[in-house]
Write a structure and sequence with these properties.
The protein is 49% helix and 14% strand. The protein starts with 11 loop residues before the first strand and ends with a helix. The longest helix has 26 residues. With 329 residues, it is α/β, with parallel strands linked by helices. Helix 7 crosses helix 10. The strands form 4 sheets. The chain has a 6-stranded mixed β-sheet, with helices on both faces. A two-stranded antiparallel sheet has the order 1-2.
Length: 329
């Protein structure tokens, strides 16, 4: 293979673009695609303070690297989910990257902040791990961005992630989620005031496929955690990705056509389903929650606080049962 730009030896081919690139020009290609997404969807400006949610994986570290090189004011945020050695290795990767690039990194622990880990939460609430994990990450990422005064929250969702989510939402005709599936989710305010409830959220990697972020990380010398989360086995999203990859191999560009075709031709048709209910502060933590149906209710908690309360209540029940059993013996 020859590089499309310089005709030198190519190391990465991108079939949907009918192009191949040498290491230097592949890095340029990824950088230009991210810059194009930032401009096309009006994601952020160089004056914005960006908080990047990092997991220690290839996508979040790659988008951090690209945004730093583009001159954006970036700080990363790592949330320790308490998933054994996996979380320890993930944190090490994020810390090592920050050290090697001179990047700013904020770290927090789910256990230290709320008294439980993702595995414990799954056991206590009797829900699948990915459900509680996603809820906790969304809550803590937004909370950190608000508390630290950031303008924009950045995630490392790539083209494969977005098209798999779109595929699942179409299969289930989840019109509310289809209405919200955009590369940019604008900030929202609480009630009639001017305080922010949700920070603006962007996905700069929507033009980059998963294998391309892996190649970018390799070329740029980014030491990321390769293993998948041990609690993700059986995740439906992964099955969607596998099916779409088969289609992509048979017809290069399928993923890109599906996702960007949806944005161009169908996304606005679900605008009314996005939900515009008034947001009010959670009575426990102050985080935003939907005001609909709140009339006459003295205590309205957000989804996170409801889940947290359930987990602590179940833990208390188990403790009481253990103490009672010991007394009987």
């Amino acid at each position: 293979m020859r590089c499309k730009v310089c005709r030198g030896h190519a190391v990465v081919d991108i079939r949907r673009h009918n192009a191949a690139f040498c290491p230097d020009h592949f890095v340029d290609h990824v950088t230009s695609q991210v810059a194009k997404a930032l401009k096309e969807f009006k994601m952020a400006t160089v004056e914005d303070r960006l908080l990047i949610a990092v997991s220690g994986g290839k996508d979040s570290l790659a988008v951090w690297d690209v945004l730093m090189n583009l001159g954006y004011d970036t700080t990363a945020f790592y949330l320790d989910l308490g998933i054994g050695g996996y979380s320890a290795r993930s944190k090490e990767a994020a810390v090592a990257f920050a050290g090697s690039r001179g990047g700013k990194l904020i770290t927090r622990s789910l256990r230290e902040e709320h008294g439980f880990t993702v595995p414990e939460l799954s056991t206590l609430t009797r829900r699948v791990p990915c459900s509680g994990c996603g809820l906790n990450k969304r809550y803590e990422f937004n909370r950190a961005a608000l508390e630290e005064g950031f303008d924009v929250l950045v995630t490392g969702h790539n083209l494969d992630d977005e098209v798999a989510t779109l595929f699942g939402n179409v299969l289930g005709w989840n019109t509310q989620m289809l209405g919200r599936q955009r590369p940019v989710l604008q900030e929202r305010i609480v009630g009639a005031g001017d305080s922010r409830a949700f920070v603006k959220k962007i996905k700069p990697l929507v033009r980059i496929a998963e294998r391309e972020t892996a190649a970018y990380a390799l070329i740029r010398g980014i030491d990321y955690i390769v293993e998948e989360c041990p609690m993700v086995e059986g995740n439906t999203q992964h099955r969607y990705k596998e099916a779409l990859t088969l289609l992509e191999e048979a017809s290069p560009g399928t993923k890109h056509r599906m996702y960007f075709g949806f944005l161009k031709n169908a996304s606005d048709r679900f605008a009314e389903d996005r939900g515009s209910a008034e947001l009010i502060p959670c009575t426990d933590c102050g985080a935003p929650t939907v005001a609909s149906g709140a009339h006459g209710v003295e205590k309205l908690m957000c989804s996170f606080c409801k889940t947290k309360a359930l987990a602590h209540a179940r833990r208390a029940e188990r403790t009481n049962d253990s103490v009672h059993g010991a007394e009987q013996r």
